[in-house]
Each structure stands twice: as structure tokens, then as C-alpha cells.
Amino acid sequence: MIVGIGVDIVNNSRFEKWLDNDKMLERFFHPFEIEYVKTYKANRAEHLAARFAAKEAFVKALGTGFIGIECRDICVRNESSGKPCLVVENTALKKMQDKGVSITHLSISHEKEYTVAMVILEKN
Q1: I need a surface site. Which of 5, 6, 42, 123 has the fewest CB within 10 A?
Q2: Would the pTM count as exceeding 0.90?
């Protein structure tokens, strides 16, 4: 059963400034995401934007916004196939469990200066 659907779109250039701001990175991103983005030589802002859009889409799908959720507790990783997935912990995991969510689906798409993310949350 679908619990919620969330979508977010961001302008990639917004994240150019964030790349050199460790305080912003540490506030909004999981350490794994920071390391992941720093390994890219090109399109780093696009990768950062994708992760931020996914976080926004997740909290929209939950219906809570970021109330009671630390942004860095939501982490975007990639499966070996390249498919993006969400790994949630701490505050985000607690909210997800409170809503009875057991399955997350994530899709991310890039187009020139924009990135969009969509999240679908399900419970068994």
C-alpha cells in the first residue's frame, strides 16, 4: 500500500557554492554523500543537487517536512547497478517507522541545469 509520494526539483547551480562550504555540507548531507560527491571531478553540484532533491522528496512523501528529521539522516546511495536508493537512519528512520513505511522507491533525473527526484513510500 502506498503511504506517500513526493517530488522535488532543484536548480543545480544553487549547489555550486555549497561544494566549498563544509558547514553546509555537514549540516545537510550524510558523510557518505559528502565523500561520494567529492570523488567526482565534473558535475559535482549536479550530484549534490540530486541528493538534496531526494531528501526533499522523501520528507514530502512522509508528509512531515523536515520537522523532527535531520537532513543528514537521509542518505542517497547507489546500488551496484547504478540505481539510486535511500538509506535512512536515526531521526528519519524513526519517522518512517512511525508512519509504518517499510519500502522506499527513488528515481532521480538530470536535465541541463535542473535535477528532479521522486520518492514513493510503501507499507506492507
Answers
A1: 42
A2: yes
